[in-house]
Design a protein that fits this description.
alpha+beta; Lipocalin; 2 helices
Length: about 140
């Protein structure tokens, strides 16, 4: 009887581990809607600001660039993604920051695919943009 209990305990533990691994695997491949994604780059000299994007379940996107912030719409299905942003507002930024904002917006508009590796989300297009999931 003790041997049977031990086998049952091992089977139960194995089933729990398998279900936890399956849930982790599903999370590994799902898009992190509602989470802040920070661009995997160093801040520009003299600033702590780093571009971020957050995409809600309904596709609403909030994009914080080097200088400006814009709203947009994202369409995500399986491993495909398209991002359409509103026009960038006029800002009083240094030319280098404005140029980086323009380049990042151009790269985001050309994104067609995405993939996830744990807390890293890559947006793939003409340029690969690597973001990190903020986990506070």
């Amino acid at each position: 009887m003790p041997c049977l209990r031990r086998r049952f305990a091992y089977l139960l533990a194995g089933a729990l581990l398998a279900s936890a691994a399956g849930a982790a695997g599903a999370n590994e491949t799902s898009f992190p809607f509602g989470s802040e994604l920070i661009l995997d780059v160093a801040p520009m000299p003299g600033s702590k600001r780093i571009p971020m994007i957050e995409i809600e379940d309904n596709g609403t996107a909030s994009i914080d660039l080097w200088c400006a912030s814009v709203e947009g719409q994202a369409n995500i299905a399986d491993d495909t993604i398209t991002i359409v942003a509103a026009a960038m507002p006029q800002t009083q930024c240094a030319p280098e920051r404005q140029s980086r904002d323009d380049n990042l917006m151009a790269a985001l508009s050309q994104v067609t695919k995405w993939r996830r590796h744990g807390e890293v989300i890559e947006l793939l297009g003409a340029t690969t943009l690597r973001f990190r999931l903020l986990t506070n």
